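Dear H.,

Thanks for agreeing to be a second pair of eyes. The structure we're designing against is below in token form, covering all 186 positions.
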């Protein structure tokens, strides 16, 4: 996350009431975000249909330290059609193996998403290959008529995060973070 700055906007309880605390440092939030991205491989993505309805889907993801999330999908999938006309997207990353009453955690990201092209598609392929070693064998084994041949990488750029990590940040605490980028993303 070296090419960006994270800024804590507010810390709240589950009802959204602000909590004044100096115990939650930006370093702790960064550790939490990095760990949540590293420990989870699935995300849920919310997009908006052309007629203004909510749509959600799930995908495997890889990521870059600059809070760029990459996923692989078919261009004709509804979520890909949605982002081609409205790039606004929200993402949730969490483990579904958590149990009620435990120390829960999850990450919500808000930003924009577009199909990755050129250098970004190459970067996505490299990151995805590193995270999912089976990916290249899957790709090489696709039949000529397989819809998988038409899959493309998509790049989600987060500009706001909501971090929930009870082990690291405390029980029932939500940290809203703004992302400021120091380099222009292409």
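And this is the sequence the design step returned. I haven't edited it by hand at all.
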């Amino acid at each position: 996350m070296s090419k960006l700055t994270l800024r804590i906007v507010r810390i709240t309880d589950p009802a959204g009431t602000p909590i004044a605390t100096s115990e939650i440092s930006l370093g702790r939030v960064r550790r939490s975000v990095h760990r949540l991205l590293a420990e989870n491989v699935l995300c849920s993505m919310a997009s908006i249909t052309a007629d203004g309805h909510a749509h959600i889907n799930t995908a495997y993801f890889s990521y870059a330290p600059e809070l760029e999330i990459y996923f692989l999908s078919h261009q004709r999938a509804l979520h890909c059609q949605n982002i081609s006309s409205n790039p606004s997207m929200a993402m949730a990353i969490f483990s579904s193996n958590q149990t009620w009453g435990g120390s829960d955690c999850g990450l919500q990201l808000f930003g924009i998403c577009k199909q990755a092209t050129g250098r970004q598609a190459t970067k996505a392929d490299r990151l995805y290959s590193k995270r999912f070693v089976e990916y290249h064998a899957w790709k090489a084994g696709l039949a000529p008529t397989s819809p998988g041949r038409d899959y493309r990488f998509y790049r989600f750029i987060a500009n706001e995060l909501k971090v929930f990590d009870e082990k690291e940040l405390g029980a029932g605490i939500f940290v809203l973070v703004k992302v400021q980028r120091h380099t222009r993303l292409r």
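Two observations from my side: Strands lie at 4-12, 42-48, 54-64, 68-74, 88-93, 105-115, 151-165, 174-181. The CA atoms of residues 6 and 30 lie 8 Å apart.

Warmly,
E.
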